[in-house]
Amino acid sequence: MKKIIVGNWKMNPASKKEAEKLFKEVKKNIVGSKANIIVCAPFVYLETLKKIGMGRIGLGSQNVSHLESGAVTGGVSASMLASLGVKYCIVGHSECRALSDTDQQINLKIKNLLKNKITPILCVGERERDEAHTYLQFVANQIKYAFLDIPKSAIKNIIIAYEPVWAIGASATRTATSEEALEMNIFIKKVVSDITDEKIVKEIPILYGGSADESDAGNFMTLGGAFGLLLGRASLDAKKFGKILKIASDIK
Ligand code: PGA
Question: Taking all residues of the chain, what is their mean pLDDT, rounded to a whole number?
Answer without folding.
Answer: 97
